[in-house]
């Protein structure tokens, strides 16, 4: 602290109890936890005299305190209410005798040091000013900055005194928001580049984290590991890369005092039932979490499986030997919810399941099913069928008004950009999560025999499947990938695909990949309807599929037609958003 200047204490408020992204402060950003990246940026601000982590003293947040000790960072463990952020920060302010308080959010790893430095300096050199703000941008647009708020101690004390309600105690500054204009301001200029784009740069959801992790990985691939990510560089990246900017485009910020929608998604996955239910449930969970600011928990029954898209979602797991009904009922006794969404492959005891649905209805919990449970339609508010096809018997049933389906109902991750199709030699083969038709024993030999021209074949081995039997003298170039985390990008970079009927088939259509699909074990009427849609070559046996692939490789016009027609039907996929729209009026209160 320079002689005669105010003492500046920056307080980083962080706890691991986030309802949308638990333990986010410890998530990795290019080799360091998110919380460390925040501290590294604040260390660049010369005006800050003391930098302190403010967390809570409960057991759940001990890992943050352990990180602070290991990293030689000052930390304070608050023993009061975990949601009393004002009280927690004020305890640090008093302990370190701050003249200027810089309140920092523990989920903002792009705090701009240069801007914060100018704001602190303005308060230090304008002793009559009570509040510092940025000069409005010439463009009229808001600056991109998030996560830092400098206050003179007198204003901070006013915040503490005025923060009476739980919402005011949790959201720092809320109590004086309406009276800020009455404070005596000083203003600082900010670089024009910081108002060029409007983008979320805090981390509240999985989408936010994916954006931030992508930016950090790109920066440190080309820059000094001791540097900090340049915010002007980030803005240039966002302007140049539309797909990057769209990663968290739909995320809704939870408003102060907003009671989040509480959702339980019950699903199953494993060797016997595949991964399609898990995949769809993950898409639904993220949509509700990001676009309605909901608190979502996945309740998973099945085999332990490495499925990266679910890694960061709050979840509870049980095995096949457990009673799903009993475990869900017990979980709900301790975790009140507004909505339960079921995406199930197996129901062991229909009578018990019916009783559970009736109990949920008695408690005014909205009951939703995905792709099934038609026998329980009377006990459900809605059934969302992620398919272009619905059997005539179901479509004309007594409760058909509760059921919706169509090409706009598929529950697939958003694809921000599709590369125009070009002929090529790269073929993607997908035999299913457990390869139930033993295609690994059949297709490699068939592909050697039927495709005389050498192809680059990428075989995706599901987590429960055996490796394919590839001949040592095969004239094709084979690449075997087991349950890869980057499957979407692999799909996008293939010229053709050979797969079984299921979720992955529709993900390929979504990306415009000309595909041959094997429809074994599927209702004949559904296969006939799919043939009529003319979005792919449809086969009913493994050898017919390979013959169809050979014909497709030699017919660019047909491949181009598949690319364009599939894009028209399923390219702009908003199935999860459609489900959210259906649920909203059933709750009795707005979701946003």
From TrEMBL:
GO cellular component: a single term: cytosol
Keywords: Nucleotidyltransferase, Transferase
GO molecular function, one term: 3-deoxy-manno-octulosonate cytidylyltransferase activity
Keyword Transferase among record annotations: yes
InterPro entries assigned: Cytidylyl_trans (IPR003329), Nucleotide-diphossugar_trans (IPR029044)
Gene3D superfamilies the record matches: Glycogen Phosphorylase B, Spore Coat Polysaccharide Biosynthesis Protein SpsA, Chain A
Protein name: Uncharacterized protein
Native source organism of the sequence: hydrothermal vent metagenome
